[in-house]
Write a structure and sequence with these properties.
The chain has helices spanning 2-22, 26-30, 37-66. By secondary structure, the protein is mainly alpha-helical. Helix 1 (2-22) packs across helix 3 (37-66). It is elongated.
């Protein structure tokens, strides 16, 4: 699950980079625009993956504590 979330977060980051640098929404362009149902589903799944990725901070913190 963590790897899948990380891949989706990277996809989101690349998309935001394209928007910031070029004003181009890659996901929207590939899947029929920002308002298309599939685009909205992808945006939602990427957002959920971002929320899941927040747990990486806590896993790292717990691992550091257990290693001394």
């Amino acid at each position: 699950m963590d790897i899948t979330a990380l891949i989706l977060v990277i996809i989101g980051a690349v998309n935001w980079g394209c928007i910031g640098l070029f004003g181009f929404d890659l996901v929207g362009a590939l899947f029929g625009g920002q308002g298309a149902v599939i685009s909205r589903i992808i945006f939602t799944v990427v957002g959920i993956a971002g929320l899941w990725a927040i747990s990486f901070f806590f896993k790292h913190r717990m691992a550091a504590r257990s290693n001394g």
